[in-house]
Every structure is written in C-alpha cells, then in structure tokens.
Amino acid sequence: MRALAFTLPSHLSSHLRRKLAVCLVSAGTCLSGAQATAALASPSIVSASLAAASESPTTTPLAGYAIVAQDHTALRAGPRDSTPIQAVLWQGDALEVRGQRLDYLQVYDHRRERAGYVRASQVRTMRLGADDAPELLSVLRFVRDLPGSEALGLAYSAAYLKAAPAGTNTAEAWDAMGQMAERLAARATSRQTAPTANTTSAPTAADTRLAGQLEGLSAYGIQLTSLERDTGVQLCYDGEAFSRVLGQAATPEQRARAVLGLTRHDCTDPAATPTALYQRDLARAKLLDQSLSANDWARLSPTLKNRLQLRRAGVLATLAHAHSRRLSGAETSIDAAMLQAAQNAVSALAAVNKMELTDEDQADYQAAALRVGASLWAAAPQPAVLSKSAIAGARPTLTTRAGQPGETCVALVDARQPTKPLHECCTYGTVWTASASVNTTGSAVALAVQPLATWRELWVYRKTADGWVLDVLPPGVNKPEIGYIEHAGWVPGTDQLLIAREVLSEGRFKRSFEVLKLSDLSIDKQASTPTVLNGFSKGQSASWKALTVSLR
Prior knowledge:
Largest sheet: 8 strands, mixed
Number of helices: 16
Strand content: 15-25%
Structural class: alpha+beta
Radius of gyration: 36 Å
Distance between the termini: 81 Å
C-alpha cells in the first residue's frame, strides 16, 4: 500500500489539535493514542505508521462464504428490519459474503441472482481453504445424523468437498451426502403419500419449508427424480454420491451403504421399457456381487450383511423373471442364467440371520421373501415340452406353444384325443411348466403363471359337467404389488386343493394356508400356519415343502 502523508489545517488551536483523535485507516487498522498525538506533530510519522499498518493488519477479513442455518431467513434490501424483503431463504442455501453492516451481512445469492442483507445470527460463515477442511468435516459429522437437518448437512458436505485439497479421500463426505439426500427424498415422499382427509387443503408450513429446502439442492448438484405411483409421487435420489464412494478407498460400511443406495427396488421407473429394466437389473446384480471383496464382507456388521443379502435376494429373483421373458418361446431350452439367478436368490434369502434383523428390517425381510417366492419356479429345471404325439396316459397333460410375440399359449390335452385340446388359453406371463400338477383322478390340474416379476398366480383347470374350465387365483384381491399363490398338494380321497399364499398390499403383509373345494374353489378351511390344518398333514406335496419359502 502506498503511504499517505497529510498535515492538519493551521487555523486549529493547539488545544483542539491535542484533543483531536486522528484515526488513520489502512487495511482495517486505526491509529490512536500516542500514535495519533505524534501524527499531529509530524506528517512523516503518519506515513511511517500507515506503512507499518499496511504490513501488519490487526483485523480478520470477513469469511467469503455463508450457509443459511434457519428456515424463513429474510434477504432484505438493507441492514435493518424495516427494509423490504428481497427473497426468503431456506436452510442449506449458500451465499457469498461481501461485507458487514451493523448486525447484518451483505451477501449475494448466486442461485437467485440477487444481492441483499441477512442477519448474521441466521447464517454460518466459513472459509473454503485447505486449512479449513478438517473443521468443516467435524461439523458435517455432527449434523449428518440429525433428523430434519439434511439440507444443512448437504450444504456442509458440498463446502467440505470444495475445501478438501486435491488427492484427499473424500469417501466419508460423499457417503454422508448420499445418506442425507436419501433421507430428504424419503421425507418428501412420505408427506406426499400420507393420507389426508381433504386432499385439496392448502400446503402446511412444513410442506412449504420442505419445498424450499428441496429447491436448493440443485445448487450442490443433487438431483431427485420423480416417479409417478398410484399413491402419489415417489422422490428418489439419483445416487451420484454413492457412485463416488465406490470409486474411492472407502471403508466396507461405506461401500455397503453405497451399494444399498444404488440398488433400491422402489426407485425403479415403472414407465421404463422391458429392455431398460433388464439392463438395470443386470447392473444391480453386478454391483451386489462385485462391489465388496471377501475381506470387506468379513468386516461388515451382521445388520449390513443381512441388508445386502435381502437386497441381493430380491434383485436376483427379479432378474430370474427377466431372464425368463427373454426366452424365445416354448421350444427353447431352459436358460442357464435364469436358473442360476433364481437359485442364488434362494441361497441369499436362506443366508439371512433372522436373529440379527432390526425392527425396520423385518418388513424388508418379508418383502424379499415374497419376491423370491414369486420367481421360485425359475430355480427348478423346466421339463422339455412334449409334442402331441408323445402324450400318453389317461390323465390330461399341459402343452405350450408360442403365440403372438411375447405370448405363450397353454393347451390342456387328453392323450386319447391329442389333436383336440380340452382347453387352451394364451398369456403374456411366464408359464412355469415344472409346476404343473394333476390330481389322482385326473379331474383337476394346477399350474403356476407369473405375469409380473413380483406377482405369481395359480391357474386351476377343473372338469365340470359342461367340460373343462379355467380359474385364475391371484395372491390377493387388491391391485398387484408383491405376492404369490402356490399349489401345495391334493387331499387324497377328496375333492380338495391345498394352497399357500403370501401378499403385501397397502403396506400390510398377510400369509395364509387354505383348503379349497374343487367344486367352486371356495375356502373350506384357513389358517396362518399349516400345522393346524388336517388337510396339510394328509396331502401336502413333498416337492412343495422342499421348495417353498412360505415355511421359512
């Protein structure tokens, strides 16, 4: 800084000259006391004092960055409460600090492209130098697990990532960012799907606050996607932070959480094409199989191991069904990839340590079991399709043929009249030929058909006085979500059918074992466990008992 020299006007009295307090400002420093008295006497001292002040400033410059810590923070036109409000800021908003007036900071909001003043007590100022990174990380560790502080934590994550020197392992910050983004998206989804008495009511203060926080996420590169559901809009984090975790030297726990964040079932776009869904399932299965080494797996807690096994079981069961849809018709031999995926799904479900399941994991365990149960027949080798000339015996037999693209036609054939099917029906679902079962009298046939990856139905052919009829039994009466129904056996010497069904509908899980009358398929007896039903002790199929997941 160039030194300045000046002299006081000569007409001032000596008394006034002695009483006058001269403040020479240079880089925020004022000269007073003995320096001021000397300055009055000699302009040269003024120059020397200012030069010294320019070399050794005694005040701390203002921090250039601030994060809004309170919702409904007013960005005002001036540094007083009486000035107009330029904008309303929300927790997590980032501001550039340009000065200070009174108890207000002069700031600029780059997202809104607007300048103004905010109360200093409503923001947290900071610097973004390399030396400030440890302090920012400490604050991040404190706020990352505080419910309701996700927006503030995301802002501190972004600040730390900007301040961290090149080459720093930032897996912890990315892990925290991914977790908080997921929690914020889940909180927003729960408020949108929560049942209300009046759906046309005005938004509450909590809704407004949440909307403001979500709006500011784009400033940190956090993207939330909206998926249309019957119950509302599902908000999902795109998972970029979790992908960054897997690209660094992260701990096993961090890698496990990243894999769970990138393989969620509920964030699958229902409007995606079958090909896109198939590629997503392949990518999810690859992440679950290759993201953690054997050493990483050994160091995980039992809770994280269970969650990974549950996710793996559900993903592989879905992939097994996707493989079945890519078969080129009934004349194609069993797909080895489908068989392997289904068997691995069963193994993953069996590997879950039920004693280590947390309360929140219980629902995930039931859902994973239902997903595996829906695709369970993919784990059994499917028999070769018989030609009509090869059909023999007195009992009816099921045959399949390709229909329209993606369609399978099922025919019920009598060996005595193989050219004239007793009944024929086509479906776009997967027909599990290995599940076909005929009762001892040849008057009924049961067949498993899976129209969706998470929904398996039971087809029951019955012989009536007017001929053969087909009844389709679904797992539940509500709209298909997750569930399956399976044939458990025939009660010998009676016209009764044994079934087991499990369904998850509207957030409620239900499992039941039933004895049905073949005459009209009405329920004769029903229980939550098969041991109390006499029909199951007499007629349950050994193959069903060995394969089913309903007895877990």
